[in-house]
């Protein structure tokens, strides 16, 4: 039995990864920050199978303790301040967690169990103002947010510890990946939640920012499998994980509404653009400038050919199914809210 330590275990990726590792017979440890009210988040349903350790990415002593307790063979660092918009509001906290926090975890591994294998959750946001399309492991980085900059430090410090100390340390440069467990502050879940509420008559319309932003969207469940595969190789390396497809936010909106039988008809341009329910003429999508980024990332499109060839990684959930899963799940959740409110 292998021991695995997951930071950020209560998040979307952490929960799917915990499920995967438990299925493979791992003893799973998860790091949680101490709060006044315990919140198991997305691992509520498997909390009895996980060994939780209180620690914090900004406190290296607590991470050393976590390594001593878990004696982890594999460490998956998924903890982050991961909402891009918040990184402009909290740039120092973002750097403390997403940049220095990675160094803290690497130091804890180097101090306690240097033979442990380490996975760092890097991000396509590091490409930012893209220097090539599509983006691969050799594409130059140009981050456009405090989040992207902090993650770039985490990416390079992981590579540096691999080359300086011989640690098995690798980074997965993951492009946008979503799921039914995504937080509502993220645009994809904001869309699917709003679609459900509009369909069920409890919300009037959806407000969004840049409708022309292009992203490479996959499902989190597929992507955590790639994380595991990276730590099973003979040598550590870095890999882009992506779908090799890109779609605009506008397309995501259209497909999401389509799953509940609503066809969106667009009119206007820029901030004056609106989307109407074609059948009723009701405005269901509006543009709100408050949701525009200070520095925009226009297009992200990943080339995952290295991972597909070297790791044998296969994506199983196509884009249309991803959106459908999210919409149908939110339809159930909102319907339940409505029923509870009637009681």
Automatic annotation (TrEMBL):
<comment type="function">
    <text>Catalyzes the conversion of GDP-D-mannose to GDP-4-dehydro-6-deoxy-D-mannose.</text>
</comment>
<dbReference type="GO" id="GO:0070401">
    <property type="term" value="F:NADP+ binding"/>
</dbReference>
<keyword id="KW-0456">Lyase</keyword>
<feature type="domain" description="NAD(P)-binding">
    <location>
        <begin position="5"/>
        <end position="326"/>
    </location>
</feature>
<dbReference type="Pfam" id="PF16363">
    <property type="entry name" value="GDP_Man_Dehyd"/>
</dbReference>
<dbReference type="GO" id="GO:0008446">
    <property type="term" value="F:GDP-mannose 4,6-dehydratase activity"/>
</dbReference>
<dbReference type="GO" id="GO:0042351">
    <property type="term" value="P:'de novo' GDP-L-fucose biosynthetic process"/>
</dbReference>
<comment type="similarity">
    <text>Belongs to the NAD(P)-dependent epimerase/dehydratase family. GDP-mannose 4,6-dehydratase subfamily.</text>
</comment>
<dbReference type="InterPro" id="IPR036291">
    <property type="entry name" value="NAD(P)-bd_dom_sf"/>
</dbReference>
<dbReference type="InterPro" id="IPR016040">
    <property type="entry name" value="NAD(P)-bd_dom"/>
</dbReference>
<keyword id="KW-0521">NADP</keyword>
<protein>
    <recommendedName>
        <fullName>GDP-mannose 4,6-dehydratase</fullName>
        <ecNumber>4.2.1.47</ecNumber>
    </recommendedName>
</protein>
<dbReference type="InterPro" id="IPR006368">
    <property type="entry name" value="GDP_Man_deHydtase"/>
</dbReference>
<feature type="binding site">
    <location>
        <position position="205"/>
    </location>
    <ligand>
        <name>NADP(+)</name>
    </ligand>
</feature>
